[in-house]
Amino acid sequence: MVMALLKVYVNSLNGIEAFARFLKSEFSDENIKFWLACEEFRKIDNKGEIESRAKWIYDTYVSRKAKTEINLDSKTRSHIRKRMESIDNNIFDQGQKCIKELMATDSYPRFIKSSKYRSLLA
């Protein structure tokens, strides 16, 4: 149920912006930024751009050295690291799924109880 609500909500520009502001206030906006970067990454069709963008996403969000490291389990992080040797548009799918589930079960329920959400509905 929460996953379905999150899916509907992030398909709305106002919804994404409000949710991103909420996540920023909780110091976890790297999650929505990673999720959005993956959505855009999937649309790229130029091999050179795919490789450079994948490296940027990895260095920015997935790497243990990233300043905006997302919370991935070690199995998923390792899977992505290995796939960096042979990059395609689906390289981040598993990580994106984990982050979406995290947002749906952790951040989003708090968001819909927040004043930021209520003010959006007003």
UniProtKB/TrEMBL annotation:
<dbReference type="InterPro" id="IPR044926">
    <property type="entry name" value="RGS_subdomain_2"/>
</dbReference>
<protein>
    <recommendedName>
        <fullName>RGS domain-containing protein</fullName>
    </recommendedName>
</protein>
<feature type="domain" description="RGS">
    <location>
        <begin position="15"/>
        <end position="121"/>
    </location>
</feature>
<dbReference type="Pfam" id="PF00615">
    <property type="entry name" value="RGS"/>
</dbReference>
<dbReference type="InterPro" id="IPR036305">
    <property type="entry name" value="RGS_sf"/>
</dbReference>
<dbReference type="InterPro" id="IPR016137">
    <property type="entry name" value="RGS"/>
</dbReference>
